[in-house]
Amino acid sequence: MSRKSKGLRTCLYCNEQLPRQELIRLVKVNGTLVVDHKQNLPGRGYWLKPTQKALADPKLIQILSKRTKCSIKPDFIKELMYEKNK
User: Fold this and answer.
1) Which of 9, 29, 31, 41 is most buried when burial is the number of CB atoms within 10 A of its CB?
2) Residues 5, 19: contact at Cβ < 8 Å?
3) Which residue from 53, 52, 46, 55 is spatially nearest to 78, judged by alpha carbons?
4) pTM higher than 0.70, yes or no?
5) Could you tell me which of 12, 43, 17, 35 has the C-alpha nearest to residue 81?
6) How many other C-beta atoms are found inside a 10 Å radius of the C-beta of residue 76?
7) Using one digit for the tens of pLDDT, what is the confidence trace for 43-78?
8) CB of 48 closer than 8 Å to CB of 24
9) Is the pLDDT score of 1 beyond 50?
10) Cα(54)–Cα(84) distance, rounded to whole angstroms?
11) Residue 36 and residue 3: Cα distance in Å, rounded?
């Protein structure tokens, strides 16, 4: 059975495989990374575990930008924190 059929996704930050319900889905739209609130936007999904450690890491923007090969908005961390607290 493949990992996809089990519903597991890999976090961009910690490389841990987790159920998609525990992660935030990110999608590249016009070269910019955005949060997919309803997890239904078309395109390649990137996944992030919204832990306090990850969101507080000053290198998170750099890690996301490098791993997804797209630009990140300056207020992106605030958007991720909002999504985490939902």
Assistant:
1) 9
2) no
3) 55
4) yes
5) 35
6) 19
7) 889 999 999 999 888 899 999 999 999 888 878 888
8) yes
9) no
10) 11
11) 21
